[in-house]
From TrEMBL:
Residues 33-52 bind DNA. This is TetR/AcrR family transcriptional regulator. It comes from the Bacteria. Transmembrane segments: none annotated. The lineage of its organism: Bacteria, Bacillati, Bacillota, Bacilli, Bacillales. SUPFAM superfamilies: Homeodomain-like (SSF46689).
Length: 132
């Protein structure tokens, strides 16, 4: 029996997660089936189930990985900022530039409507205390 390298296994796992992300983004969690992910990934159903026992496990793994990557990115950005106020300002700066929007909204399939509402309310109130 041929041995499969860890690198090969990791590439397959990443392909499955990327396929699941695409399917969840297009159809949502509840309407996406494992068959959809199999079809998009062009892998067999057996291979998919070797990596993830269920759609829920796959989704949680995807959520964990994407969240951890985003948090690592933010931690790296915040390393040199000593105050909480500075970190909040930097967070909103990053958001405004679209970095958070591209990295997180892709996974959560949302547009950060709450933050958009926050900025609209501040602009309406004429609150320009913090340059964002």
């Amino acid at each position: 029996m041929p041995k499969v390298s860890e690198e090969y296994k990791e590439r397959k796992r990443v392909t499955i997660l990327e396929s699941a992300l695409k399917c969840f983004g297009e159809k949502g969690y509840h309407l996406t089936t494992m068959d959809d992910i199999v079809a998009y990934s062009k892998m067999s159903k057996g291979l998919l189930y070797n990596y993830f026992k269920s759609k829920e496990e796959l989704y949680i793994s995807l959520m964990d990985e994407r969240s951890n990557n985003t948090l690592a990115y933010l931690r790296n950005q915040f390393k040199q900022i000593p105050t909480a106020k500075g970190k909040v300002i930097e967070f909103f700066r990053i958001y405004r530039e679209g970095l958070i929007n591209r990295r997180v909204a892709e996974f959560y399939s949302c547009s950060f409507g709450v933050l958009d509402l926050f900025f609209s309310a501040r602009a309406f109130a004429g609150d320009h205390e913090y340059p964002i």
